[in-house]
Write a structure and sequence with these properties.
By secondary structure, the protein is mainly beta. Helices cover 3% and strands 43% of the residues.
């Protein structure tokens, strides 16, 4: 039978114990410079590996922002006080791994308003 109407295909099944990345701020459209906060959460006694964090601006071609964000990465998340971005809409993917090698990822969109 076909999937139910409105169903979204998932690429993973079952219980996943991989780490979680939560986009905390900013909210809707913001002005630059802005505060960018993400929280990392691990499970099962594993720790987040800060060296595994990758931040990618999704466009064609993709832009690796990891080296720019690396100084702000900690084991509990990313906290950038004054992130500067030109006006526009940016889709960003953050990938992490925990000490057991399990992956976690999130994708979010930043909307930067003109000044």
């Amino acid at each position: 039978m076909p999937p139910p109407k409105g169903a979204i295909a998932a690429d993973r099944r079952g219980i996943m114990r991989g780490p979680k990345v939560e986009f905390v701020s900013p909210g809707d459209a913001v002005n630059s410079p802005m505060r960018l906060v993400l929280k990392f959460e691990s499970y099962g006694g594993a720790k987040i590996d800060p060296e595994s964090v990758k931040v990618i601006f999704l466009r064609t071609p993709n832009v690796d922002l990891t080296s720019r964000v690396k100084p702000f990465v900690q084991s509990d998340g990313i906290n950038m006080q004054d992130a500067e971005l030109p006006p526009g809409e940016y889709t960003v993917r953050v990938d992490i791994k925990d000490s057991d090698g399990r992956p976690g990822t999130t994708i979010f969109t930043l909307k930067v308003a003109p000044k």
